[in-house]
UniProtKB/TrEMBL annotation, chain A:
Catalyzed chemical reaction(s): a quinone + succinate = fumarate + a quinol
Pfam families, sorted: FAD_binding_2 (PF00890), Succ_DH_flav_C (PF02910)
Cofactor: FAD
Species this protein is from: Pedobacter cryoconitis
Main location: membrane
Name recorded for this polypeptide: succinate dehydrogenase
GO cellular component: plasma membrane
GO molecular function: electron transfer activity; flavin adenine dinucleotide binding; succinate dehydrogenase (quinone) activity
Domain Fumarate reductase/succinate dehydrogenase flavoprotein-like C-terminal residue range list: 503-637
NCBIfam families attached to this UniProt entry: PRK07573.1 (NF005749), sdhA_Bsu (TIGR01811)
Similarity section: Belongs to the FAD-dependent oxidoreductase 2 family. FRD/SDH subfamily.
GO biological process, one term: anaerobic respiration
Automatic annotation (TrEMBL), chain B:
Enzyme class, first EC level, given as a word: oxidoreductase
The keyword Oxidoreductase appears for this protein: yes
Pfam families cross-referenced by the UniProt entry: Fer2_3 (PF13085), Fer4_8 (PF13183)
Family: Belongs to the succinate dehydrogenase/fumarate reductase iron-sulfur protein family.
Cofactor names: [3Fe-4S] cluster; [2Fe-2S] cluster
GO BP field: aerobic respiration; respiratory electron transport chain
Full protein name: Succinate dehydrogenase / fumarate reductase iron-sulfur subunit
Domain 2Fe-2S ferredoxin-type: 1-103
Length: 638, 248
C-alpha cells in the first residue's frame, strides 16, 4: 500500500490557499442530499457538525455522554495557542510552525503543521464572535500567557476553564443548528462499528446507551471525532468514558493507525494515592510559569518540604535545562521527574511525586497576585488533597494525558478508507511525537471549523451522482450481527473478575513498559502479558445484566476489550521504532546525557499500521516525512 | 472506615423505586465519593447483583455529568463541590449516607441515580447562543471588552449544566441555569444584540419543559458547585421585562 499524504504543491505559506482555491465544491441545493455522520461532540466534532450543518449538509451527531456539552474537551484548563503576536514578542505563523514541529521532535508533516499555525489566527476571532469570555487586559484587549516549550506568549485563556468555554461556544453553535432542524442529535449513543460498502465509509452501528437498542445510520461520509484513548492506561487525566473503540473498529475495517504508541504523559498531575483511584487530575501546565519543580537532594528524605533548606533542594529542571527551566516541554519534564522518582528522590507517602513550589513567586509577587493567576487551581488542589499550596509546595506526578497517535489521515484529514475522516485528537497529525501545551484545543477546533468543511466537500462532490445506500443494505445487517454477537459474548462469560480488574492490570503493564520509557525486552514481555490478559479476559470476565438495557458495566467491558487489542499494537509500534523521539523514549537509544537520540536516517517516517486479523501480525506502512523548508536539528532545550 | 449506605434503586421511569441498604467496610478516607461507589459496585457485581447506575465522566468537577443527592443535599454536604470532587474524609466512620437521584418533574429517572437532563439542551437550543456562523469572523481585537466585563461574563458562563440548582429548588425551577446563559451572553457586546429575543425564547422554553417558577428562595445558589450567583436571575428578570416592554 502506497500512502499518499496529498500535500498540495507550492511554497509552504501558499499550500492551504492553493488547496482551497482548487478544492471542488458542492452546490448548496445538492448539499441537502448528502448526509454526514459526525461521531463525537468535543471541540472537533461540535465545530465540524455545526459548520457542516450551516453549509447545508444534513448532519447526524453522536456522543456517549448525556449532553454534547460534556465531551472531555470541557476539561482543558490552560489555554489555546494562536500566533496573533498581540504581545509583540516576536511571534509569527512561521515561529509557531517551527515551535510545533520542533516540539514534536520533527515527526510531523511540514504542510499540516504550517496550516495549523496559519488557521490559529482565525480561531481566536471565531471564538470571540461566539462569546467565549477570554481573559482581557484592563483596556479591553485580549490577554496572553506562555506555555511550555516556547519563548513567546501566544496562549489565550479563560481562567482555568479554557476548554469548557471553547466547547460551550462550539456546543451552542451546534445547538443552534439542532434548533434549525439541520442536525439530528444522538447523545447517549456509542458508535460500535463502521459500515464500509464498496470500499467507502457509508454508515455506523451505534448502541443507544439508555435502552440498549442497536441502531443503524447511513450517510455519505463518516467523521470520527472521538478524542483520545489515553484512558487505556486506566489512570489518566481523561474522563471515565473516553475510549478507543470508534477508531479501533474503523481500523479493523481498513483504516490505518499511525504511531499509536505516542502518548503524552503530562508532568503536572496529582499523584496516585491508592489502588481504588479511578483517575489522576491534571494541574494546569500554566502553573509551571511561576512554580519551581524540585526534589530533595537526599534520597528517601523524611523531612517535610518546608524543613528542607534551599541548598538541599535539587531544582532538576533548572539544573538540566537552564534556558527553559521549569518550562521545558512535557515529555522532557515528565521523563526528568520519572528519573528522579525512580532514583529514590520521590516525595509523598508513596514516594511517587515531586514538589511544585510557589514560595518564590509568593515572595516576589505577593500572595494576592499568585491567587489571581492560579486561585482556582490552588483551590482545586485543596479540594482533592486537603492541602494548602500557599503554605507548602504541591506534590505532582506524571500521568497519561494525550494520544498523539490515532487514525492515519492525509492532508484532507481523510483516512485510508475513502469517505472516512478523522479529526481532533482521534487522528495522528500535527503534533508529531510530542504535543506542545495549548496546541490541541487549537487542532481540534481548526480541524472542525476550518479544514474539514473544505476537504469534505471536495470528497462529497464526487459522491453526488452515486446511488444512495440505505440501512437495509446487507452490509448493515452483517455488521450489526457482529456487534450484537460481541456484546452477547461479553455478557455470557460469567467469570469471576470485573472489567476494572482487567483494565487496571492492562494500565499498569502499559505504563511500566510502554509509557515514559520503553525497551525491547520490556515491550516484548508486555506483548506476551497483554495476550495472556486478553485470554483471561474472555475466560473470566463478569458483566452483570444484559445488552438490552442500561448497562454501564457492559459499556466498560466493550471498551476494555478494544483496549486489550490496541495495547498490543501500541507495543508493536514502540518496538519497531528503534530510535527515541519526543514522547517515545527507547532506553537503548539515548545520548550520554540521557536525552532522546533520534535517528533521522532510518526513522524519519510516520508508522502507519494495517490490521491483518486476529493473531496475525500487523503490517507497517511507513510514510516518509520529507522536510523541504526546514532543517532537522537536535531538539535542545538546555 | 465503614459506612452504611441507603441508595435509591429504580429500574426505570415507569417502575417505583425504593431505598436499599448496603454496608461497606473497606472505605479509605482518601477515596472520592464516586470511588466509594465504584468499590460498592465491584462488590455487588461479584455477588451477582446489579450494580448501582450513576452518571459520571470527567471526575474533576467540570463536565457536570455526576449529580446525586447525598444526605439530602445536591452534590453532598460540602459547598462548591460536585459529587465527584467530594471525598470520604468528609464523613464520620460509621456514618449513614443517603444517596438519591436529582428529583424534578423535568428530570425523569432513567435508572437508579441516572436522570434525563436533556431539557437543559433544549433550553439552550431555544436561544442560548450567538448567531454567528463559522468561517470568517472579524478580527478579535476589534471588539474591546473591559477586564471587568469579561470576568463578569465568565462568572456567568462557568455553569457546568449539572442540574443541582433544579434538584435543590422546592419549585424545581431552572432559573439559575437559564439565567446564567442569558446573563453571560447579554453582558458582552457580541451577544447583546439578540438579548431580547433570546430571553423571551429561553424563558418560554424553560416553562414548556415543566420546570417550576422561581420564588427567590436562593437555595440554588447555595448548592451550585460553580458558585453561580442569583444576581443572574435578577439580570434575567430585568432582560425579560425590558424585552417585553420593547416588544412592540
Ligand atoms: C485534563 C485535560 C486538560 C487539557 N488541557 C488542554 C489545554 O489546556 N490546552 C490544549 O490545547 N489541550 C488540552 N488538552 C487536550 C485537549 O483538551 C483535547 O485533545 C481535545 O479537547 C480533544 O478534543 P476532541 O474533540 O478531539 O475530543 P473530545 O473532546 O474528547 O470529544 C470526544 C467526543 O467523542 C465522543 N465519543 C467518544 N467515543 C465515542 C463512541 N465510541 N461513540 C460515540 N461517541 C463517542 C464523546 O462523547 C465526545 O463527544 C487537555 C486534555 C485533558 C484531558
Ligand atoms: S447553575 Fe450551578 S447548579 Fe445550576 S446547572 Fe449551572 S452549575 Fe449546576
Ligand atoms: S463527573 Fe464531571 S463533574 Fe463530576
Amino acid at each position: 500500500m502506497e500512502l499518499d499524504a496529498k500535500i498540495p504543491e507550492g511554497p509552504l505559506e501558499k499550500k492551504w490557499s492553493n488547496y482551497k482555491a482548487q478544492a471542488k465544491l458542492v452546490n448548496p441545493a445538492n448539499r441537502k442530499k448528502l448526509p454526514v455522520i459526525v461521531v463525537g461532540t468535543g471541540l472537533a466534532g461540535s465545530s465540524a457538525a455545526a459548520s457542516l450543518a450551516e453549509q447545508g449538509y444534513p448532519v447526524y451527531s453522536f456522543c456517549f455522554q448525556d449532553s454534547a456539552r460534556r465531551a472531555h474537551s470541557v476539561a482543558a484548563q490552560g489555554g489555546v495557542n494562536a500566533a496573533k503576536n498581540y504581545q509583540n514578542d516576536g511571534d509569527s505563523v512561521y515561529r509557531m510552525f517551527y515551535d510545533t514541529l520542533k516540539g514534536g521532535d520533527f515527526r510531523a508533516r511540514e504542510a499540516n503543521v504550517y496550516r495549523l499555525a496559519e488557521c490559529s489566527l482565525n480561531l481566536i476571532d471565531q471564538a470571540v464572535a461566539q462569546g467565549v469570555p477570554f481573559a482581557r487586559e484592563y483596556g479591553g484587549y485580549l490577554s496572553n500567557r506562555s506555555f511550555g516549550g516556547v519563548q513567546v506568549s501566544r496562549t489565550f485563556y479563560a481562567r482555568g476553564q479554557t476548554g469548557q468555554q471553547l466547547l460551550l461556544g462550539a456546543y451552542q453553535a451546534l445547538m443552534r443548528q439542532v434548533a434549525a432542524g439541520k442536525v439530528d442529535l444522538y447523545s447517549r449513543h456509542e458508535m460500535l462499528d463502521l459500515v464500509v460498502i464498496d470500499g467507502k465509509a457509508k454508515g455506523i452501528i451505534a448502541r443507544n446507551l439508555d435502552t440498549g437498542a442497536i441502531e443503524r445510520f447511513a450517510a455519505e461520509a463518516v467523521v470520527i471525532a472521538t478524542g483520545g484513548f489515553g484512558k487505556i492506561y486506566y489512570l489518566s487525566t481523561l474522563a471515565m468514558g473516553c475510549n478507543g473503540s470508534a477508531i479501533w473498529r474503523a481500523h479493523k475495517r481498513g483504516a490505518l493507525m499511525a504511531c499509536p504508541s505516542w502518548t503524552q504523559i503530562h508532568p503536572t498531575c496529582l499523584p496516585q494515592a491508592g489502588d481504588y483511584q479511578s483517575k489522576l487530575t491534571l494541574m494546569s501546565e500554566s502553573l509551571r510559569n511561576d512554580g519551581r519543580i524540585w526534589v530533595p537532594k537526599l534520597a528517601n528524605e523524611e523531612r517535610q518540604a518546608n524543613d528542607i533548606p534551599e541548598e538541599e533542594r535539587d531544582y532538576y529542571l533548572e539544573r538540566r535545562y537552564p534556558s527553559f527551566g521549569n518550562l521545558a516541554p512535557r515529555d522532557i519534564s515528565s521523563r526528568a521527574a520519572k528519573e528522579r522518582i525512580d532514583a529514590g528522590f520521590g516525595v509523598g507517602a508513596q514516594r511517587n511525586a515531586v514538589y511544585l513550589d510557589f514560595s518564590k513567586a509568593i515572595q516576589e509577587q505577593g500572595k494576592d497576585k499568585v491567587k489571581e493567576k492560579y486561585g482556582n487551581l490552588f483551590s482545586m488542589y485543596k479540594k482533592i488533597t486537603a492541602d494548602d499550596a500557599y503554605t507548602a509546595p504541591m506534590k505532582i506526578s506524571p500521568a497519561a494525558h494525550f494520544s498523539m497517535g490515532g487514525l492515519w489521515v492525509d492532508y484532507e484529514l481523510m483516512t485510508t478508507i475513502p469517505g472516512l475522516f478523522a479529526i481532533g485528537e482521534a487522528n495522528f497529525g500535527d503534533h508529531g511525537a510530542n504535543r506542545l501545551g495549548a496546541n490541541s484545543l487549537l487542532q481540534a477546533c481548526v480541524d472542525g471549523y476550518f479544514i474539514l468543511p473544505y476537504t469534505l466537500a471536495n470528497y462529497l462532490s464526487g459522491e453526488l451522482k452515486k446511488e444512495r445506500l440505505t440501512i437495509h443494505h446487507p452490509q448493515f445487517e452483517l455488521v450489526e450481527k457482529e456487534v450484537t454477537g460481541q456484546l452477547e459474548r461479553l455478557c455470557q462469560i460469567n467469570g469471576t473478575k470485573t472489567t476494572d480488574y482487567f483494565h487496571k492490570q492492562l494500565g499498569k503493564l502499559l505504563y511500566d513498559q510502554c509509557g515514559l520509557s520503553r525497551s525491547e525486552a520490556g515491550l516484548k514481555a508486555a506483548i506476551k502479558g497483554i495476550q495472556v490478559l486478553r485470554e483471561e479476559f474472555y475466560k473470566d470476565l463478569i458483566v452483570p445484566g444484559t445488552q438490552g438495557e442500561i448497562n454501564a458495566e457492559l459499556e466498560k467491558a466493550g471498551r476494555v476489550a478494544d483496549y486489550l487489542e490496541i495495547a498490543e499494537l501500541m507495543c508493536n509500534d514502540a518496538l519497531s521504532r528503534k530510535e527515541s523521539c519526543g514522547a517515545h523514549f527507547r532506553e537503548e537509544y539515548q545520548t550520554a546525557e540521557g536525552e532522546a537520540l533520534r535517528d533521522d536516517e532510518n526513522y524519519c517516517y510516520v508508522s502507519a499500521w494495517e490490521w491483518k486479523g486476529e493473531n496475525t501480525a500487523p503490517v507497517l506502512h511507513p510514510e516518509p516525512l520529507v522536510f523541504e523548508f526546514i532543517k532537522l536539528s537536535v531538539r535542545s532545550y538546555s | 472506615m465503614r459506612v452504611h449506605l441507603k441508595i435509591w434503586r429504580q429500574k426505570d421511569a415507569g417502575t417505583a423505586g425504593k431505598l436499599m441498604d448496603y454496608e461497606l467496610d473497606n472505605v479509605d478516607n482518601h477515596m472520592s465519593f464516586l470511588e466509594m461507589m465504584d468499590t460498592l459496585n465491584e462488590q455487588l457485581i461479584l455477588k451477582g447483583e446489579m450494580p448501582v447506575e450513576f452518571d459520571h465522566d470527567c471526575r474533576e468537577g467540570i463536565c457536570g455529568t455526576c449529580g446525586m443527592m447525598i444526605n439530602g443535599q445536591a452534590h453532598g454536604p460540602v459547598p462548591g463541590l460536585t459529587a465527584c470532587q467530594l471525598h470520604m474524609r468528609e464523613f464520620e466512620d460509621g456514618a449513614t449516607i443517603y444517596v438519591e437521584p436529582f428529583r424534578a418533574a423535568a428530570f425523569p429517572v432513567k435508572r437508579d441515580l441516572k436522570v434525563d437532563r436533556s431539557a437543559f439542551d433544549r433550553i439552550i437550543q431555544a436561544g442560548g447562543f450567538i448567531t454567528a456562523s463559522t468561517g470568517q469572523p472579524a478580527e478579535a481585537n476589534t471588539i474591546l471588552i473591559t477586564h471587568e466585563t469579561a470576568e463578569s461574563a465568565f462568572d456567568s458562563a462557568a455553569c457546568i449544566g449539572c442540574g443541582a440548582c433544579v434538584a435543590t429548588c422546592k419549585n424545581s425551577s431552572a432559573a439559575l441555569f437559564t439565567s446564567a446563559k442569558i446573563a453571560h451572553l447579554a453582558k458582552i457586546p457580541q451577544g447583546e444584540k439578540e438579548a431580547a429575543k433570546r430571553v423571551l425564547k429561553m424563558v418560554s422554553r424553560m416553562d414548556e419543559e415543566g420546570f417550576g417558577h422561581c420564588s427567590n428562595t436562593e437555595a440554588c445558589e447555595v448548592e451550585c458547585p460553580q458558585g453561580i450567583s442569583v444576581l443572574n436571575i435578577a439580570r434575567m428578570n430585568w432582560e425579560y421585562t425590558k424585552a417585553n416592554l420593547l416588544k412592540d
